Amino acid sequence: xxxxxxxxxxxxxxxxxxxxxxxxxxxxxxxxxxxxxxxxxxxxxxxxxxxxxxxxxxxxxxxxxxxxxxxxxxxxxxxxxxxxxxxxxxxxxxxxxxxxxxxxxxxxxxxxxxxxxxxxxxxxxxxxxxxxxxxxxxxxxxxxxxxxxxxxxxxxxxxxxxxxxxxxxxxxxxxxxxxxxxxxxxxxxxxxxxxxxxxxxxxxxxxxxxxxxxxxxxxxxxxxxxxxxxxxxxxxxxxxxxxxxxxxxxxxxxxxxxxxxxxxxx
Length: 266
Ligand SMILES: [Zn+2]
Known about the structure:
The protein is 52% helix and 9% strand. By secondary structure, the protein is of the alpha/beta class. It has 2 domains: 30-150, no CATH class; 154-266, no CATH class. It has a 4-stranded mixed β-sheet. The model has no long low-confidence stretch (mean pLDDT 93). Zinc ion (ZN) binds at residues 144, 148, 171, 174.
């Protein structure tokens, strides 16, 4: 009898702990989005004989709902709710796992987009046979690519050229969503975060900066930053910062970056 009681108490504690850990990763799905269709998923396996494919299917037995669930998490990070008029309505997401040198990429525009994910990369991430690490990486990559599918697109600030303010918006925001969803470590001391550098670096360097602004300046910062792409024409980083945080000298991107660097001790 006593043993049963101890068993029940311990089981309950394990469940509570699991919920706490899950919530702490910030990846919980908000109710408002539960019935939202982020787009029908068409899954293709172009490397069915590869080890990466075998591993992928063993951790993700049913890819379509997995991709849709993570898509809703990206949407709730970028938008206030399904009724937000800026929410893009995708018809189709073509998701392909494929044997190629690379990690993942999004292609296509409009209401049908595609995402490729490399089975070689899956194999590399699973070298230590660590299922949790592979899930963390696979979801992280998915958050990044799905952000490209749903993010707004700023105008008058260059093209996708690895350096323009446009490119920095696209790639910085994609990794900001990945951090916000907990698939880059949210601890600024984590090795996931590159130290120093510049907000003009893009990807996670810029992504952690945007995430820091959402923690320290405005909890809706990421949503407002995304929305600024349709509010400001032509768009620029300085205009967006001042638009969201107030038109003051301390709110230029350079000044905010300095403040962030000091705050995280770089
Ligand atoms: Zn990207």
